[in-house]
Amino acid sequence: MARPSKAPERRAELVAAARHTVVERGVLNLKLRDVADHAGMSPGSLLYYYPSLSDLLEDVQQEAVERFCVAREAAVAAEADPRARMRAMIGTGLPNGKNDELCVLLYELGTIARREPAYAARHIALYERQVRGYVGILEAGAATGIFDLTDDPVTIARNLVTLEDGYGLHLTQAVPPLDRSVAEAMVLSYARVSTRCSLEDPA
């Protein structure tokens, strides 16, 4: 009887090694050998599982996007009131600082999207998935009369995600110009204005 293949397990280990290497070194000038060294194998052995560094980083990006979105969606699903759901969505959309591994990873891999269509497609899918999350909250709040939207839900949602991205990039720089609490307050401020709602739980 043939032994089960260890390829899936080995691929998962290589994705983890690549993830840590990207966060530590950045994606610019990253070499296949850097990942191989982190994984404790030769570059040739790595190529047995992934034909190129680009192929490996595609799996890294896909895994990072899924983890990020699932965590946000779970936080929102745990809340019933649209105000609490909005706060949960905003609270999970910003990095905790320059050492937030998952957000740093997504920003680093996002730079490849300027040149590679496959990366761009996943980057767009990440953006649109977050927009849909906000749209659902906004529509539910408007339908129940809790929110009085100043614009259509998609426009507000796109602005919220763009604010998160902008502040998030600042928060992950070597010397962040603001801290996370300030960035979160700014995004919440726009959400309050655009929903005409304090976003506080009813007394």
From TrEMBL:
Residue stretches making up the HTH tetR-type domain: 8-68
Keyword tags: DNA-binding, Repressor, Transcription, Transcription regulation
Coiled-coil portions: none
Pfam families linked to this entry: TetR_C_6 (PF13977), TetR_N (PF00440)
Feature: DNA-binding region: 31-50
Molecular function GO labels: DNA-binding transcription factor activity; transcription cis-regulatory region binding
The UniProt record lists the keyword Cell inner membrane: no
Name of the protein in question: TetR/AcrR family transcriptional regulator
